[in-house]
UniProtKB/TrEMBL annotation:
This is Glucosidase II subunit alpha. It comes from Tetracentron sinense. Residues 1-28 form the signal peptide. Pathway: Glycan metabolism; N-glycan metabolism. Residues 371-635 form the Glycoside hydrolase family 31 TIM barrel domain. PANTHER family: ALPHA-GLUCOSIDASE, BCDNA.GH04962. Residues 98-315 form the Glycoside hydrolase family 31 N-terminal domain. Residues 738-825 form the Glycosyl hydrolase family 31 C-terminal domain. It holds the Pfam family Glyco_hydro_31_2nd. SUPFAM superfamilies: (Trans)glycosidases, Galactose mutarotase-like, Glycosyl hydrolase domain. The lineage of its organism: Eukaryota, Viridiplantae, Streptophyta, Embryophyta, Tracheophyta.
Length: 967
């Protein structure tokens, strides 16, 4: 994974790291490899602009093709701004074109670009293949525009319909775009502080004009001059803003400018391979999603998304920031102002009105897509390490899991399995029989993942390189030659994934015939796809490298990894004739990545700070569409921190929140040199954190220590496997609505202010709350449980009151986790070697009663691997407990009486939490037989609890309608 260093130098760097660690300043060594805002001319320029400096006004406003269009024209010659490089006064004044379109569900789209009738030197880049084709069918054809002078304004405004409750307004002079409730409160605005700026493309006229930029020995030729865009966006009725991953920072975004914020950087969105990134930092890392969400008690939730793939920088202004300089718009209570800056591209922005948190994520998903439904196995536990040496090593690890009675579903192979870092090949000395190796795992229901990165080794004997060269499939450098950069294999070139033909060519490489040694149980992992280039500026490709259609790398940089992920995922799809759901994990991402697979949060380190920040990082990814994400702990520095890891991030702690909560993913940790080790990495698919556990078998002679830790890990992983039916149901919800599997508390409790900035606890679906523990050897935890319901401890069944912060004792073997009253959670409690072997196992239903002794929940099941669910081949049940009766009913839409998917699974146990009074037995209808009822136990922990009631062996089929009445 994220190895920014070549192996040759890694020893050196490690030593260096060690040194720095002792100095306790790990962060400083890499910081100067990356640009700050001040070293980035467009960012520095945009940040220095004064509110009100935009002089554009809207003219020629009309309805055209169902959109509101206008021209933006500067009122006076461009401001003499001393800091502007190459003042543009002598350029003719060229208008910009503005287009506002309305879509279903209250979505406003705003585009601003250069006017083609003034012959710009080239077309600016508009990101293709991100917006869903279906989205275009949701356009509302605007018929009319009303123009009026809104109270307090001196100039007219044009108003168009957005939904029954909302309307969009274009204020003409100065130009401002905003969304408001009909005739009332504002939701979102753009340019209300007059910071909008749009640098138009230029061609060199004068000799000696120098637009080049230099950074650490790299020169960017910038043939079209500066071409950045910046503007302010305000969120009204907002208490906090969230989103814009990926940063290792808090869930609620801290101000990056304003009173009290010193020397702070804007949040940077620029996909970079940042080895051992620092926590609590706005620096850009592997992926970028320019989508921000605001939430407030008064107005609810809204969102703003800018589809733009160039480097972006975003400031969140603290309160008290120069607010007076804005244009006075009505209602500005609790406004949060932000400044958006991008190096290139166009304005293609979307305003989402909400008003609830789930509305906003669904509105965003209607533009960029919902997450793909993963294969069931992918939601279980994955095992990885860098590196599995050979087939024997793989076999050993595999059998250790069986010996220790720990289930796992996937084993991962990093780059060392290849022949000289040439992807799609095997080192035949170490892996002589890859098919046989995969088949052995497959016999236990297990899968394998191999790594395939975008850098292709420039080796004349490598067929892939020969073919790519011959066909002209590589990205070109600024002079038009195949770009040659340094990565794992040494000298490498990168396929131009922007080109759809090259993506199909790439996809073909995954056929069983082309990928020799692959079998149907093999899936793929894309690393280094930012793209990482060791000798490139900021460890990536030069901005003036050239892609398909003359697009400069600067324009699409943040989407390169997305297109690569897409091509790989399509390859797996083709390989299985479109029948098998792909599984591809990617490090780089962009809006839309959720349609192609999962992502992980890269190379962090095994310390408490990274464990802590993994929760907001994954919650943020979920909010911005990427519900299937994974966190790796212990990514890179185990050699240094082994002791910390063992004593600090003990399996009972670091690991538990993830395991309990996530559908698992794994990632690798490094092998400890010379030690006989094995590594368990739990990962959570979908939304959560991955967890990582390292068991050092020989490291400690203390046998009881080892056994104890093995037991803790086994328990944690068992809990995850028990919850797989619940997770899979949540994945289905995410893939139909965009609502993430793992959610910030405020998404479920949007009017409970105590939850708004809480990112230590989170919800798994609507039913489970997990409180992470982030300090070493904590004995107590303060847990806030949202009000309006009570909460049952997942292990003991003990009920806690909501609306209160509880100080709870915490044990080594668990983190606090609770089931919300009024919910029903489906489980499978029997342990197998892998999730695949649990298919026919019976279910347990856990009913957490609310104060009216009622609860409800859902269960979704399909074949776990094909796309037949899209034709209705699935089971979707609704469970309702009320008036002493549990009713199971179908909620899948009718498939004209035909059952396209069926299951023989039964319910073997029903657990009721919450003192159900006076139960003696249970009557099952329509079968008309009785089942036994007993007090306790709660099988997670054993012990009997007076407020737990168990209905034993009702043995009703999961596919059938039935009622169970407590007598
Ligand atoms: C309890 O749950 C039932 C079923 O969801 C619901 O209809 C009822 O309103 C809930 N009662 C309370 C007090 O929350």
């Amino acid at each position: 994974m994220a190895k920014t260093m070549t192996r040759a130098t890694s020893l050196l760097v490690l030593t260096f790291l060690l040194l720095l660690l002792f100095l306790n300043s790990v962060s400083s060594w890499k910081r100067d490899e990356f640009r700050t805002c001040n070293q980035t001319p467009f960012c520095k320029r945009a940040r220095s602009r004064k509110p009100g400096s935009c002089s554009l006004f809207a003219t020629d406003v009309a309805i055209n093709d169902g959109d509101l269009i206008a021209k933006l024209i500067p009122k006076k010659p461009r401001e003499e701004n001393g800091e502007d490089e190459q003042a543009q006064e002598d350029e003719p004044i060229k208008p910009l074109l503005l287009r506002l379109s309305a879509y279903q569900n209250g979505i406003l789209r705003l585009k601003i670009d250069e006017d083609p009738s003034f012959d710009p030197p080239k077309k600016r880049f508009e990101v293709p293949d991100v917006i869903l084709p279906e989205f275009h069918n949701k356009k509302l054809w605007l018929q009319s525009v009303s123009t009026e002078v809104i109270d307090g304004d001196s100039a007219p405004s044009s108003i168009v319909y957005l939904s029954d409750d909302y309307e969009a307004v274009l204020r003409h002079d100065p130009f401002v775009v905003y969304v408001r409730k009909k005739g009332g409160d504002l939701v979102l605005s753009m340019n209300s502080h007059g910071l909008f700026d749009f640098e138009q493309l230029r061609t060199k006229k004068k000799e000696g004009e120098d637009w080049e930029e230099r950074f650490r020995g790299h020169t960017d030729t910038r043939p079209y001059g500066p071409q950045s865009i910046s503007f302010d966006v305000s969120f009204y009725g907002a208490d906090f803003v969230y989103g814009i991953p990926e940063h290792a920072s808090s869930l609620a975004l801290k101000p990056s400018r304003g009173p009290g914020v010193e020397d702070s950087e804007p949040y940077r969105l620029f996909n970079l391979d940042v080895f051992e990134y620092i926590h609590d930092s706005p620096f850009g890392i592997y992926g970028s999603i320019p989508f921000m969400i605001s939430h407030g008690k008064a107005r609810g939730t809204s969102g703003f998304f800018w589809l733009n793939a160039a480097e972006m920088q975003i400031d969140v202004m603290g309160s008290g920031w120069d607010a007076e300089s804005g244009i006075s718009l009505p209602s500005s209570q609790n406004r949060i102002d932000t400044l958006w800056m991008s190096e290139a591209g166009i304005v293609d922005a979307f305003f989402f009105v909400g008003p609830g948190p789930k509305d906003v994520v669904s509105q965003y998903a209607s533009v960029t897509g919902t997450p793909a439904m993963p294969q069931h196995f992918a939601t279980a536990y994955h095992q990885c390490r860098w590196n599995y040496r050979d087939e024997e090593d793989v076999e050993n690890v595999d059998s250790k899991f069986d010996e220790f009675n720990i289930p796992y579903d996937v084993l991962w192979l990093d780059i060392e399995h290849t022949d000289g870092k040439k992807y799609f090949t095997w080192d035949r000395m170490l892996f002589p029989n890859p098919e046989e190796m995969q088949n052995k795992l497959a016999a236990k229901g297990r899968h394998m993942v191999t790594i395939v990165d975008p850098h292709i080794k420039r080796d004349e004997s490598f067929h892939l390189h020969k073919e790519a060269t011959k066909m002209g499939h590589y990205v070109k450098d600024a002079t038009g030659k195949d770009y040659d950069g340094w990565c794992w294999p040494g000298s490498s070139s990168y396929p131009d994934m922007l080109n759809p033909e090259i993506r199909s060519w790439w996809a073909e490489k995954f056929s069983f015939q082309n990928y020799v040694g692959s079998t149907p149980s093999l899936y793929i992992w894309n690393d280094m796809n930012e793209p990482s280039v060791f000798n490139g500026p900021e460890v990536t490709m030069p901005r003036d490298a050239l892609h398909y259609g003359g697009v400069e790398h600067r324009e699409l940089h943040n989407a390169y990894g997305y297109y690569f992920h897409m091509a790989t995922s399509n390859g797996l799809l083709k390989r299985g004739d479109g029948k098998d759901r792909p599984f591809v994990l990617s490090r780089a991402f962009f809006p839309g990545s959720q349609r192609y697979g999962a992502v992980w949060t890269g190379d962090n380190s095994a310390d408490w700070d990274h464990l802590r920040v993994s929760v907001p990082m994954i919650l943020t990814l979920g909010l911005t569409g990427i519900s299937f994400s994974v966190e790796v702990l212990g990514g890179s520095m185990e050699r240094v921190r082994r002791e910390d890891l063992i004593s600090g991030i003990s399996p009972g702690r670091g690991v538990q929140p993830m395991i309990v909560t996530q559908p698992g993913y794994c990632l690798r940790s490094r092998n400890l040199e010379g030690d006989e080790t094995w590594t368990l990495t739990e990962y959570s698919s979908r939304t959560m954190t991955r967890m990582y556990i390292e068991l050092i078998i020989k490291e400690r002679n203390d046998l009881s220590w080892r056994e104890r830790n093995t037991e803790l890990m086994r328990d944690a992983i068992h809990i995850r496997y028990m919850l797989l039916p619940y997770f899979y149901t949540l994945f289905r919800e995410a893939s139909s609505s965009g609502v993430p599997v793992v959610r910030p508390l405020w998404m479920e409790f949007p009017s409970d202010e105590a939850t708004f900035s809480n990112d230590e606890a989170f919800m798994v679906g609507n039913s489970l709350l997990v409180q992470g523990i982030y300090t070493e050897r904590a004995k107590h935890a303060s847990v806030y449980l949202p009000g309006g319901q009570s909460w049952y401890d997942l292990r003991t069944g003990i009920a806690y009151e909501g609306g209160v912060t509880h100080k709870l004792k915490v044990l080594e073997e668990s983190v606090p986790a609770f089931q919300k009253s009024g919910t029903i959670v489906p489980r499978k409690d029997r342990f197998r070697r892998s999730s695949t072997q649990m298919v026919n196992d019976p279910y347990t239903l856990v009913i957490a009663l609310n104060s009216s002794l009622a609860a409800e929940g859902e269960l979704y099941i399909d074949d776990g691997k094909s796309f037949e669910f899209e034709q209705g081949a699935y089971i979707h049940r609704h469970f309702l407990f009320s008036d002493g009766k549990l009713i199971s009913s179908n909620i899948a839409p009718s498939t004209s009486g035909k059952m396209l998917f069926s299951s023989d699974c039964v319910v073997e146990r029903i657990i009721l939490l919450g003192n159900y009074p006076g139960a003696k037995s249970a009557l099952i209808e329509p079968a008309n037989h009785k089942a036994e009822v007993e007090l306790g136990p709660l099988s997670l922990q054993g012990g009997r609890s007076p407020n737990v009631l168990t209905i034993r062996k009702p043995n009703v089929r999961i596919t059938d309608d039935w009622t169970i009445k407590i007598l």
